[in-house]
Amino acid sequence: MMKPAIVLIAALLIAACSREDEARARAQAERAKEQARETAQKVREESREAAHKAGEEARKASAELNRDLQKAREKTRKALDEPASPDEAPKR
């Protein structure tokens, strides 16, 4: 009679341990899931910030290129408008 009681107690202990392990695994999975969500959110925010910064830098570079182009146009216009010096006059 003692053996069935021992078997029953052993089965209950194994079941209890199994449930505890399952609960522990679920909790660990939830923590990992939350960590993944936080990491994804952080990556999204950093990505937005980087894109914004890159856009600002591109606008600045474009403005600088436009200023340089305008200066070059002005120099070209002045050069075309100035009469040629006698030394540089084309020979006909």
Polypeptide structure, described:
This protein has a domain at 15-76. Helices cover 87% and strands 0% of the residues. It has one helix at 2-81. The longest helix has 80 residues, at 2-81. The mean pLDDT is 86.
Strands, helices and their partners?
Blueprint: H1 2-81
- C-alpha end-to-end distance: 131 Å
User: Based on CA inertia axes, which overall geometry fits?
Assistant: rod-shaped
- Helical run tally: 1
Helix/strand structural class: mainly alpha
Helix content estimate? over 70%
Roughly what fraction of the amino acids lie in strands?
under 5%
Q: How many β-strands, per DSSP?
A: 0
**Unreliable segments (pLDDT under 50, ≥5 consecutive)?**
none
Mean pLDDT: 86
Radius of gyration: 39 Å
Looking at this protein, list some descriptive labels:
92 residues; mainly alpha; 0% strand; rod-shaped
Summarize the structure.
By secondary structure, the protein is mainly alpha-helical.
